[in-house]
């Protein structure tokens, strides 16, 4: 899909899980596949590849590892952002919180955000999604109306990263597609 300046819409997904083969990773891959089908250029950002630090753990930003600046640049360049997280202790993951704390308005303001949450339990990731929606709003981003919570995540996916439940697959894909559609609208309005 093209934006106002005839450039492709670029969508990044930030994976809030560091575990290889995580259900968060699998869910974001599904959302990104729908974004790509909708015409976007897509990229999954795995936080383990960026040498992140805790904000405040170094004296100044100039001491941040180069990976922090690479992550910031990719998010800043994006028109749409998918945030995916497992629900831990009634909230989203600490690694995602740390990554978001290293960024701000420069990366998120007026961007379109879609939310995907996974949970090991039956209740799903509703608290994580609610808190991520609040963070997105605080960063002056536009959070798409639909989000998706995947309960019982250890049994929800097959060995290839596909969801067993067709309705959940449709909902995850809808989030990816909405991010592209709203980002294209937002981009054309500028």
Class computed from helices, strands and strand pairing = alpha/beta
C-alpha Rg, in Å? 16 Å
CATH superfamily: Flavodoxin domain
Number of helical stretches of at least 4 residues = 7
Question: Judging by the overall fold, what is the CATH architecture?
Answer: 3-Layer(aba) Sandwich
By DSSP, the count of extended strands is 6
> How big a fraction of the residues is strand?
15-25%
What is the global morphology?
A: globular
Residue windows where pLDDT falls under 50 for at least 5 positions: none
Largest sheet, if any? 6 strands, mixed
Helix content: 40-55%
Number of domains: 1
The end-to-end distance, rounded to whole angstroms, is: 16 Å
Which CATH class? Alpha Beta
Order of helices and strands: EHEHEEHHEHEHH
Mean pLDDT: 92
CATH topology: Rossmann fold
Could you give the topology of this structure?
Layout: E1 10-15, H1 23-37, E2 41-46, H2 66-77, E3 80-88, E4 91-92, H3 94-101, H4 105-108, E5 112-118, H5 126-138, E6 142-150, H6 153-156, H7 166-189
Structure characterization notes:
The protein is an alpha/beta fold and 190 residues long. The protein has a single domain (10-189), classed as 3-Layer(aba) Sandwich (Rossmann fold), CATH 3.40.50. The protein has 7 helices and 6 strands. The chain has helices at 23-37, 66-77, 94-101, 105-108, 126-138, 153-156, 166-189; strands spanning 10-15, 41-46, 80-88, 91-92, 112-118, 142-150. Strands 1, 2, 3, 4, 5 and 6 form a 6-stranded mixed β-sheet that branches. Strand 1 (10-15), helix 1 and strand 2 (41-46) form a beta-alpha-beta unit. Helix 1 (23-37) packs across helix 7 (166-189). The longest helix is centred in the last third of the chain and has 24 residues, at 166-189. The model has no long low-confidence stretch (mean pLDDT 92).
